[in-house]
Amino acid sequence: MALIDALKWRYATKKMNGQAVPQEKVDYILEAAKLAPSSSGLQPYKIFVITNKELKDKLRAVSFDQSQVTDASHVLVWAAWDGYSLEKISAVFDRTIAERGIPADAMDEYKQRLWGMYEPLGQEWHANHAAKQAYISFGVAIAAAAEQEVDATPMEGFIPAEVDKLLGLNELGLKSVLVLPLGYRDHENDWLVNMKKVRTPQEDFITEIK
């Protein structure tokens, strides 16, 4: 399916039917999410893929009882770094250097300049910046799911501190940012399934400056 057609097809599915999504489709979506751009290529987030029924039940309880969490085939949780550090940045750059086969000190100047900008901004700024990078990956995953004709429900409607506890994120230096249930729409019981997609008109949405 062409991307624009896929995006016209997709909607924030309100009721899923419990049907399993083939693993190859899930893998495709996750690969797309991994390939998403991020600031300085740091990818300051991880994705947790949940299929365990007991854990999905617990997640639903802290997600305002949204049924998609338990009716989905897979629930994806984006968890962003709770802060930057020179060690974390260095680890990413070291991997880049090794993969590209370039001199060990090739990125030292850029690394020090980057950390020099980030360090004084404080942990709250760090966490917000990392979360913004997760949103980019999240958007790419939604588009990839639509391309695969897999339904998805973008969610911010959950209690982050409780999700962090359930997944043990605090110990990993992570904070839950976004949740994406993947599955298939329940045509009989989803009130939104046949509703017209509404977006801002082009003339109000786009401003051309020539």
UniProtKB/TrEMBL annotation:
Keywords noted in UniProt: Flavoprotein, FMN, Oxidoreductase
Domain Nitroreductase: 7-184
InterPro entries with a match to the protein in the record: Nitroreductase (IPR029479), Nitroreductase-like (IPR000415)
Family recorded in the similarity comment: Belongs to the nitroreductase family.
Transmembrane spans: none
Required cofactor names: FMN
Protein name per Swiss-Prot or TrEMBL: Nitroreductase family protein
Annotated organism of origin: Flavobacterium chungangensis
Keyword DNA-binding on entry: no
Source organism superkingdom: Bacteria
